[in-house]
Amino acid sequence: MVRVARLAKDRDADRTRSLILDAAERIFARDGLRAARTLDIASQCHVTKAMIHYYFGTKEKLYQAVLDRVFLERIEGMQLASLRALPPRDALDAYISRLFGQMARKPHLGPLFALENIQNDGIYYTRSGGEVYRVLTNIVDRGMAAGVFRAMDSRHAAIIIMGACVHYFNVANNVRILWPERRHFDERLLREHIASATDFVSSALLMRRVRPRTAVHR
Amino acid sequence: MVRVARLAKDRDADRTRSLILDAAERIFARDGLRAARTLDIASQCHVTKAMIHYYFGTKEKLYQAVLDRVFLERIEGMQLASLRALPPRDALDAYISRLFGQMARKPHLGPLFALENIQNDGIYYTRSGGEVYRVLTNIVDRGMAAGVFRAMDSRHAAIIIMGACVHYFNVANNVRILWPERRHFDERLLREHIASATDFVSSALLMRRVRPRTAVHR
DNA sequence: GTCTATAGTTGGATAGAC
DNA sequence: GTCTATCCAACTATAGAC
Fold first, then answer.
1. Which residues in A lie closer than 8 A to residue B144 (C-beta atoms)?
2. CA distance B191 to B194
3. Using one digit for the tens of pLDDT, what is the confidence trace for B107-147?
4. Is the CB of residue A31 inside 7 Å of nucleic acid strand D?
5. Cβ–Cβ gap A200/B117 under 8 Å
């Protein structure tokens, strides 16, 4: 190691802390808590491992801090309280739109939550993360009561809708399965997915009149 | 360690090999390749770590063997070739039904594939795993051509449908978010999910005539 | 606040007896 | 084919200089 101590004027506790959180968020979103390496996190943001322990104590506490931060961001970004007040169709549209707004800004959030659910049963997030699901359940229930959504179990509906929206991000690094001509995550594909998923969910839920087709083969 | 060498008559290479694969499948489905511990796998099936290396060489090769096996099971269980021959609606029903048949038998398959996609970009599975998606794409394309499915990009549709079906298994260990009265994965919930998801996907895709509602509030 | 150096532990893999 | 014992690399976390 030839690196020299950073100049005093370049030291900034808030900035360093936030850089570590940003890097940790990306690394944890790929590796999960157990497989993530503090060295990977440190070198991604050009600090030393010691800094992680100086600011966060342990890897586990850093992980908790990461989830606490994204949880706050999500709660603010989704504006859940306001959704409960909107009429069901508008609330559904707004819910999905805000959800995708967040995922578009940070495509790794899907994997981060997926790993947390699978590997840790959501114990680092669930504390109050369930609100995101419960608001969606509420929207579906109100839509059914108002007669604008088809009848179905709203809790299953919430999980299915969420899956329809977020699965894309879990397979995003592997899209060459379906798009061999593309090797990586792509801005245009993302926009297409958002449009498709929004449309898909609406079609599944909405009671709607369809203009009769001329040719129906079965 | 007080355990004594197993009696010669109780030695069975095929059985041991298969026990290791079973245990590894479960552990990898929770931890992923990197975080999985060979000691965990070994103790789950009451053999020693040494046996894993005797039969499979390295942890990575064991992981590959696990994915190769589930890949074969899936290909056989899905009977993909036959699906290409069915009319679109029947093919879609059969596809989803067979998919859920496999997931019901092994609920950890969802997490196993999710981790593989997120953490390894599918490189241990994709070799030919894309066929499962491509058949679904083909079904959707044929359904649109026949006028029985709504118009949409079939590749996005495939990803969305898959997400609607499998997300449930990723959050299954965390269902107390929505069902506080239940603490664990549950047989009845699974059946409900299968029914809901099947219905959801059909409603989203099918061109159908809906009988007019009497009261529509917006 | 940031660095280097290192302690302490875990875990993948191997050697060799039975 | 299965076991015990052990090697060694990788990793988290700490100590202490600047």
1. none
2. 5
3. 999 999 999 999 999 999 976 778 999 999 999 999 999 99
4. no
5. no
